[in-house]
Structure formats: C-alpha cells, structure tokens
Design a protein that fits this description.
The chain has an eight-stranded mixed beta sheet, sandwiched between helices. It contains twelve helices and eight strands. It has two domains: 2-124 and 196-280, Alpha/Beta hydrolase fold, catalytic domain (Rossmann fold, 3-Layer(aba) Sandwich), CATH 3.40.50; 128-188, no CATH class. 43% of the residues lie in helices and 16% in strands. Residues 21-265 form the AB hydrolase-1 domain. It holds the Pfam family Abhydrolase_1.
Length: 281
Amino acid sequence: MTVQTDDGVRLWASASGRGEPLVLCHGGPGLWDMFEDVAALLGDLATTVRWDQRGCGRSERCAGPWTTDRFVADLEAVRGHFGLERTALLGHSWGAQLALAHALAHPERVSALVYVAGTGIGPVADWHPAYAGNLRARIGEVPERLARWRDLTRRPQRTDEEDRERAVLQWSAEFMDRESAQEQAERMAEPWFGINDECNKVLNLELSRTMGAPELYAACRSLEVPVLIVDGAGDIRPRSAVDSLERALPRVRRVILPGAGHLPWAEDPKGFREAVASALG
C-alpha cells in the first residue's frame, strides 16, 4: 500500500490484525520496518500499521529532508491515510524518539505511547560513549568479527554486500542471548533494502543538538498521553539514559524485561506482548 505525503513522497505501508489501531515506528534512522514478528505477535490485540520512513526500505528514495519535524509530518500522513482519528504509537530505538516527537506535537491524536528501547531525552553524550564501548565489547567476543567490523567501518566506500555484512556484525551485539545473536542479526537483514546513510547521519546530528534541551524537558512534563517505557535489561545502550524521560513524564510506567536486549520482542515475546497489552488496555 502506498501513502503519499504532503510534499509528494510515496511511503510503503501495511495494516494487519484486528482491534484498536497501533502505528509502529521502526528504528534507524535510515533503516526500514522490521516489525513483521511484532505485527503477528499483537495481531489479536490491535490493528497494527507498519510503514517505511521516507527514503528508506520500500518507500520512495528521495532527497529528504531529514528532520524530525518532517518525519512527524510523514507519520501524520500515515495516520490520515488509514483514517485514524486517534491511535496508539509504538516506537523502537530511533522510532521511539520519533513516536515521542509526534505525541508532543499532536497529543490529541495519540491514545497511548509505547516507547521501546529508546535513549531518553538527555544529551547524547551522556550515554553514547558507554554504548560504543559496549558495542565493541560484544562484537569482540569473537575477535576476528571485531577486526572485520572495524575494517568495514573504516572503509570510505563499501559495496552493498559489505554494507550488509557490517550491519549484521553490528546488529549481533543487540541480543542478550549470545548463542543465537548472529542468527537473529541475519534475520534482521533479510530482506535487505540497504541503509540510507545520509538520512542516518543528518538525523543523528540533529538529535545530538536537540536532546537535553530545556524546552524538550518542559514539553515532556506537560504531556498527558499515557506512556509505557519498555526496556530490555541487556540493551548495550545504558538504560539509565531513559531515566531522564521517565522523570519528566507525568503519566508513565516502565517495564524492564530481564532476558532481552535491544529488540525485546525477539528475546522475550511473552513479556513484550503482556507489556504492550497493558498499555493498549
């Protein structure tokens, strides 16, 4: 299904399941929807709407613009296309930041927010160095994989195959179960649509400037939308980063899944489903 934005960009989208609407916002930036398992897991609880963000995955390749405000407007286009007056939002990682930004901009259109594996609203510098160290340590459990990842990362140009190989090596660090981590990362890369590096770079630069701003804290303190924060205890991004958001929100609950990493639905589907069901009421 194609959704057209107000500036004419075509976005891929899909709806499935039954029940109240739940729009899913994938991570990245620069990636694509990997929520097929989540849609199946929640299919009897909600009508899930999946979409690929602009310039990414199955959506039209375009020149941006790569700003949070633009992506919030795109999310509004998805909501409008499906005729949803109000909807719950579930965002993962960067998608959690996007879903939060949409709730702050359009609180009257959001019934609930499920904020999964995000990094809070404090400065990026508060958590990113620890994340980078944890990433290297996880990949380095197999030294030759760390050497290969470093080699691929340093290359000024990579083939599409090399991009996929590097991504799988990096994504393998996202799982708490180390025995299945490589297999799980391979699943994330199938099908492979290619990472939009420009989108990733520009949006991450924007986040580095805007996270920690006093006006962001003030906006979160005024948000009356109910929020559920879902964390995997084994996420390599320090979970303390999310404390800034939890402290600011007036209507918030938090669930930490002890046996999961950055993609908690993959490692604790039962716990994840129960948490989301509680948010959907």
